[in-house]
Write a sequence for this structure.
């Protein structure tokens, strides 16, 4: 039994001795299990191991996204890592650091005493220094795709530079280029693989314009992710990004992933991201760290579930009328969407309030007094019985009656406004009594006052 324990502890014994003898430059011999475990931790490209980010306690932040991928000629240049990576790899010139690093991160070189073989294995392990920017960007994009959460999105890919100024690589239905495909992770990865060559100039500006047109008739929030070295770009691209933001306003955010470390490219990519006002700029090297990749994907696609304290279906962060009573119909801002039938408020062809009408308007008074930050617009509507001129007069009188009653009950007239529309905005048919009854109405639109 003792011999067995001794045998099991021997590899650990030699490992500890090695760590204590940093001056010894002979490649160490380490247990193969240590090698296998440690080698998994090294920052080689293992994006296929990326998993979709966890969506627990999160909901979709966007509905649609476009990856704009740069396969222009400058992307054929040798990939140059960021300064942090360069500092790390420069440290490998020192034997003590190199050996300790090798012990920590693993590699087949541990069992070989040939220094040249040791160096070759290290170089092979650190193959990302030999990548072109194009190849690095493709691997990074595939890893990004793997990390996108498993939710219902519409996703597209656009490229620029080769073979045409801008090309649509993925997202449209094959036999109908007016309809988008639902995002599919495997199909998206295949589309990335099909981007085979890098050549040509860098027409990012026309590509941003084309992206704006892509989503013109599509509803929902949009994320644009630009993956590029930023070379041969400048003010034109920044201004086009600003135009894109102006077109979609709060419905679009722009994110940039810089490939390499070209200073002018970084400056342009940073400014493009700033144009989106809600995105961010990051270096592709940072996304080699899986935790940072997860954080980046979270930032683009997810947001925390927001509470809905009054249960009206509008979350607190968007609710202009908190505390709405349960069961009331609300608009997109969480405010009471009130429509009162004229037959409840007035007798036929009259504009004097009935008792039932006063009871109904008292609810409006209570709401306006409880929420002093709300303004109210009242609009009067009729059916098509009678002439347009007559119904204009009647709809105006009824709207004015509502205004006057609220003012009489202490509501500041500066918070109130009215309009009248006769039978020009029906909500039902005027061909039968039931439809005409629905069209005779007062609508009450509450809105948070703009300071």
């Amino acid at each position: 039994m003792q011999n067995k324990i001794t045998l099991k502890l021997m590899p650990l014994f030699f490992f500890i001795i090695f760590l204590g003898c940093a001056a010894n430059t002979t490649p160490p011999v380490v247990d193969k299990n240590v090698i296998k475990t440690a080698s998994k931790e090294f920052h080689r490209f293992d994006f296929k191991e990326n998993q979709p980010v966890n969506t627990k306690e999160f909901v979709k932040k966007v509905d649609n996204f476009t990856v704009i991928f740069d396969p222009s000629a400058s992307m054929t240049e040798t990939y140059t890592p960021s300064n942090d990576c360069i500092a790390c790899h420069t440290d490998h010139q020192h034997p003590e650091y190199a050996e300790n690093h090798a012990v920590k991160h693993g590699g087949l070189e541990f069992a070989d005493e040939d220094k040249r073989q040791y160096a070759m294995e290290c170089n092979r392990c650190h193959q990302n220094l030999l990548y072109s920017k194009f190849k690095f960007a493709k691997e990074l994009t595939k890893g990004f795709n793997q990390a996108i959460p498993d939710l219902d999105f519409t996703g597209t890919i656009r490229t620029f530079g080769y073979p045409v100024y801008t090309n649509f690589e993925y997202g449209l239905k094959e036999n109908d280029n007016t309809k988008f495909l639902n995002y599919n992770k495997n199909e998206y990865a295949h589309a990335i693989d099909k981007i085979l060559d890098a050549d040509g100039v860098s027409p990012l500006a026309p590509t941003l314009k084309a992206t704006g047109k892509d989503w013109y008739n599509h509803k929902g929030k949009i994320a644009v992710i630009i993956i590029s070295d930023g070379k041969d770009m400048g003010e034109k691209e920044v201004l086009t990004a600003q135009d894109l933001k102006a077109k979609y306003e709060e419905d679009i955010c722009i994110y940039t992933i810089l490939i390499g470390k070209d200073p002018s490219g970084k400056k342009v990519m940073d400014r493009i991201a700033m144009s989106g006002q809600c995105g961010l700029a990051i270096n592709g090297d940072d996304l080699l760290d899986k935790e940072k990749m997860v954080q980046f994907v979270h930032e683009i696609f997810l947001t925390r579930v927001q509470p809905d304290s009054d249960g009206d279906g509008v979350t607190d962060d968007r609710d202009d009328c908190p505390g709405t009573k349960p069961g009331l119909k609300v608009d997109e801002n969480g405010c009471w969407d009130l429509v009162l039938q004229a037959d409840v408020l007035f007798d036929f062809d009259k504009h004097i309030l009935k008792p039932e009408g006063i009871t109904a308007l008292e609810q409006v008074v209570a709401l306006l007094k409880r929420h002093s930050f709300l303004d109210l617009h009242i609009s009067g509507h009729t059916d098509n019985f009678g002439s347009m001129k007559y119904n204009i007069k009647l709809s105006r009188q009824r709207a004015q009656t509502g205004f006057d009653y609220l003012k009489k009950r202490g509501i500041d007239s500066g918070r109130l406004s009215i309009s009248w529309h006769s039978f020009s905005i029906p909500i039902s048919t005027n061909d039968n009594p039931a439809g005409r009854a629905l069209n005779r109405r007062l609508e009450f639109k509450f809105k948070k006052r703009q300071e």
Remarks:
- Residues 61 and 303 are 5 Å apart (CA to CA).
